[in-house]
Amino acid sequence: MHNRTLGRGTDQAGGTGKSEAGEHRFWQSDDAMSDTRPVPRVLTELVRHRTWAKCLYALLGLPIGVAGFVVTAVTVAVSGGLLVTFIGLPLMAVTGLASSRIGSGLRTFANRLIGADVPAPQPLRANPGLCWGGSARG
After folding, report:
1. Is the pLDDT at 127 greater than 60, yes or no?
2. CA 70, CA 74: separation in Å to the nearest integer?
3. Are 4 and 11 contacting, i.e. CB atoms less than 8 angstroms apart?
């Protein structure tokens, strides 16, 4: 009959099951320790939150990106064709603003879903040049 317990009581040697520091010792057979193998990393990656977040980003990002490209391409083509009228130039400006907003939304989507750190682009500043009343040397 074995008198070994898990931490409390007495073990075979007649001890109390506590170490000298007062911590409980847990008994395990040597066979159990030799049979354990670490789980391969391939299997542990399948259950991580980050893996599933990246899969969700890939699945949702593709149709969103295709839709953003189609909207941008169509509006650039239409506004390019209408540049000879008064509608073309404002439509081209709206296309640029809409594309910027789409890109901002996709950047926020990536930052929140997969924890990416994609910074916002620097704001555009007008550089004085020949057309804007400045000099060519800047």
Report:
1. yes
2. 6
3. yes
